[in-house]
Design brief:
The chain crosses the membrane at residues 12-40, 52-77, 97-117, 183-201. Residues 32-140 form the G-protein coupled receptors family 1 profile domain. Pfam families: 7tm_1 (PF00001). Keywords: G-protein coupled receptor, Glycoprotein, Membrane, Receptor, Transducer, Transmembrane, Transmembrane helix. The chain has 6 helices and no strands. It has helices at residues 2-17, 23-39, 49-77, 83-116, 127-157, 165-207. The two termini are 26 Å apart. It has one domain: Rhopdopsin 7-helix transmembrane proteins, CATH 1.20.1070. Helix content is 81%, strand content 0%. The chain has 210 residues and is mostly helical. The model has no long low-confidence stretch (mean pLDDT 84).
């Protein structure tokens, strides 16, 4: 449907084209996601793997809404808010961005398969596989952001953080893993942008009249 294609174009611009989020793109993204979630409940939209991925993409913007609510709630308490609590809003935005970028790349890859390998890829492009992929993406990003949150808490607490026992090992692991994971996330973000540009470049020229 045209509305879903417009929504995907909006999300690609928001997460894979713009260097940073802004109030206008965030608001448009939230409105687009709300409209898309309503649209996907319609009987006119067939239950296909692409629709499952787009639905998960729209649901990811709930994290942005929760982050905005968190900012409002934390702001009402003033300066007494702990650094860990204020870091939660940033972690929610990070989770939203990472989930959205990977899901958009999955949609692009599926479009590539539909265009160039429609018959061969049909057994892979199932609703069940799309739901499994969405769950795996959400689980991995949740684990990543949990590490970031623990590392932020460790940095904020400083010497008061436990250094022995299972909890101490958890803090040490989080501190050691957070820095390379942030670097890896940045590198993967660049690779996803390049890959998406290449995929849609190939699709565009394959469909252009010769």
């Amino acid at each position: 449907m045209k509305d879903l294609r417009r929504y995907l174009a909006l999300k690609y611009i928001q997460y894979l084209v713009l260097s940073s989020s802004n109030a206008v793109s965030t608001l448009l993204g939230l409105l687009g996601s709300a409209y898309t979630m309503i649209l996907l409940q319609s009987a006119k939209v067939s239950s296909k793997s692409t629709a499952v991925l787009i639905s998960s993409l729209a649901q990811a913007d709930l994290l942005v809404f929760l982050s905005l609510v968190s900012d409002v709630v934390l702001g009402s308490f003033g300066a007494g808010v702990s650094p860990t609590a204020s870091a939660l809003a940033r972690i929610l935005l990070t989770a939203n961005a990472h989930v959205s970028c990977v899901l958009l790349s999955c949609v692009a890859f599926e479009a590539y398969l539909i265009t160039f390998l429609p018959s061969e890829s049909r057994p892979l492009r199932t609703v069940r596989n799309a739901r499994l992929i969405s769950r795996v993406i959400w689980t991995l990003v949740a684990a990543e952001c949990a590490l970031f949150l623990v590392d932020d808490h460790l940095r904020a607490s400083g010497a008061s953080a436990p250094s022995r026992g299972p909890l101490g090992l958890l803090f040490q692991f989080s501190s050691a893993a957070a820095a390379p994971l942030r670097s890896l996330s940045y590198t993967l973000g660049i690779l996803l942008r390049i890959t998406n540009v290449y995929i849609y470049y190939k699709i565009f020229f394959s469909m252009s009249p010769r």
